Amino acid sequence: MKNLAPETLAAQAGGFIDGETGAIVPPLHVATTFLRDPDNQYRKGYSYGRPDNATVRQVESVLAQLEGAAASLLVASGMTAATTAFLALARPAHVIAPRVMYWGLRKWLMEDARQFQIAVSFVDTADPAAIRASLCSATRLIWLETPANPLWCIADIAAIARLAHQAGALLGVDSTVATPVLTRPIALGADVVMHSATKYLNGHSDVVGGVLAGARADEPWQRLRAVRAGNGAILGPFEAWLLLRGLRTLELRVRAASETAMQLATKLASHGSVAQVLYPGLPQHRGCDVAARQMQGGFGGMLSIRLKGGEGAAIAAAARVELWKRATSLGGVESLIEHRASVEGAGSPCPPDLLRLSAGLEDPDDLFADLDRALRGANR
């Protein structure tokens, strides 16, 4: 059948049926090496496990369909996916990246990119004019993260895609938080989409992985494939198999988390201990209008709150929760809370009074009650 909805593709693992057994769950292929034909060819398409794997290919096919991409690549982590996108650029290169973004990649761009002949300009990517002002003849890539961790800034993908292409640059989008359920950046003009599959795509806090999806299987995409093969960065087959299992419920999980986050954001906006709620679904959020255009059916399961009592109150509140779990990461079935400034350290753009919240699949009223008790107790 053609023109199936994304949730149908994900739920049925791309329509897979095992030809030999009739199994509706794909098998796990763990072999690292494969038999040559008598004339030394590999007509079955597999030679060695470092550049290729049948389970990985199965998941890549589903992910490419979900993103509306020509192809996708699974790699060992979200950081591997992001750095692969930069290492595949022709060099020397200039790239534009968000001032507010995932701290691990921001740190790599600040500290390590230079040794690979990559110069970086950090700008407010919520402002297309700021991006335009930073473009130069050497700009190879504009990198967006939207919504951007941990302030949940929104970048206008379509507008910035036009800027990138007019300058002869590529547009890459970290869409980890939006997922293909809410935003499909390729349809808005992006050339490459990246995900930390550790988060919503897997959704069960038991896989570390990353994804790159390409609008075209062209020469830049072939460079990405070459970097993965050369660096041995492919995701392991068992992790890929678990990821495929998680993808089957992606639609339900993302929409449920988005609904819960919206409820929490609305209630917390009037809480006596909260100075500000950062969530793109709220009308007072700077990026709400853009988010409403490019996020379909919800604004994601991530929000942050800034506390009137400052850093001390934020740390105290995180210490008092019982249902929320004090842990790094996001996008799992369990709700997580974290004082991000403590994690990111010196030089972080994250305000010290901020708590980052990842809404899970628990009852929204239970989650709010737990937060309410913690916030009130932190001010005593």
- Helix count, DSSP H or I runs of 4 or more residues: 14
Intertermini distance: 61 Å
Number of strands: 12
Rg calc? 21 Å
What are the low-pLDDT stretches, counting only 5+ consecutive residues below 50? Answer: none
Overall pLDDT: 95
Percent helix:
25-40%
CATH class of the largest domain: Alpha Beta
Give the strand order, joined by hyphens, for the main sheet: 1-7-6-5-4-2-3
The SSE string, one letter per element, is HHEHEHEHEHEHEEHHHEHEHEEHEH
**Could you state the CATH homologous superfamily of the largest domain?**
Type I PLP-dependent aspartate aminotransferase-like (Major domain)
Q: Categorize the overall geometry.
A: globular
Task: Just name the CATH architecture of the largest domain.
Answer: 3-Layer(aba) Sandwich
Structural class: alpha/beta
What is the CATH topology of the largest domain?
A: Aspartate Aminotransferase, domain 2
* β-strand amount: 15-25%
The total number of structural domains is 2
Sheet of most strands: 7 strands, mixed
